[in-house]
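Researcher: Here's a chain I'd like modeled. Treat it as a single chain, no partners, no ligands.
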Amino acid sequence: MRNRDLSFWLFLAPVILALVLVVFVPLLYGTIYSFTDWDGIKTSQFVGLDHYITLFQDSEFLNALQFTTLFSIASILLINAFGLSLALIVTSKLKSRNVLRTIFFMPNLIGGLILGFIWQFIFIKVFSSIGTLFGIPFLNGWLSTTETGFWGLVILMTWQLSGYVMVIYIAYLQGIPNELIEAAEIDGASPFQKFWRVKFPLIAPAFTVSLFLTLSNSFKLYDQNLALTDGGPYNSTQMLAMDIVKTAFTDNNMAYAQAKAVIFFIIVAIFSLSQVYFNKKREVDL
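Model: Modeled as a single isolated chain. C-alpha cells:
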C-alpha cells in the first residue's frame, strides 16, 4: 500500500510542480507587485492599496467590467441553450447525427484570432452587401456601434463554443437509462414532457460543468475581442482582459495592471464557485 501511494505521488509530482510554478507562484508574486509601483523591471517603493482605490474610480475599468458582465450573461445563456439543442438533435434517431456532431464541433477547433477575423469579414463585408442588396439598413455598419459590437462578440462566442458544450450534454444524455425513457413513453408522456420531466433533471451535472466553462471563458475572452473589434468604437467594447493588457503593455503601468488582474481573478472565482455550489445542490443522482 505504501509503495502504491509513493508511485501515485511520483506520477502526480510533475503536474503539481507545473501547477505551482505556472499558476500559484505567478499569482503570489503578482499580488505582491500590485501593492508596489513595479514598472516591469524594478520596484522602488510600497504603495499599499493605492492601485485598488484608483481602479474603482477608473471609468474605463468600470465600463470594461460592466461590458464583460453583460457579455458573459448573454453568452452563457445562448451557448448553453444552443449547445443543449444541438445535443438533443444529434442524440435523436437522425441518420446523419454522426456527421452533424462533427460539423457542430468544428468551430471550436478554429483559433480565436482567426475566428475573429473571419467574423469581422462576415459582419462588415457580407452583412453590408446583403443590407445594400435587399435594402436592410440594420445590416450596414456592423461593429461600428457599441450595440452591434456587443452582439457581434456574443454571436462569435456562441458559434465557437456551442459545439464544445454540445459534447458535454451528449455525454450526460447518453447516460440516461433507457428504462426511464420507456417508462415515460408507456405513461403517455409527450416528447416535451420526456425532456422536461425525465431528461432535464438528470443532466443537471452537465449544466454545472458547462456553466463553469462558459462563464470562465466568457470573462477571460481576449483574442476574439482583439480581432473582432479591438475594443472599438472608443473602447466601448473593450473587455476586462483587453483593458488589463493595454494598461500593462500600452500604458506601461505594470503594477496597476496587476491590481486589475487580481480583482479580475477574484470576480471570476466568486462567480464560478458560486454557480458550481448552487448547481451542485440541484443535481439528481441516478
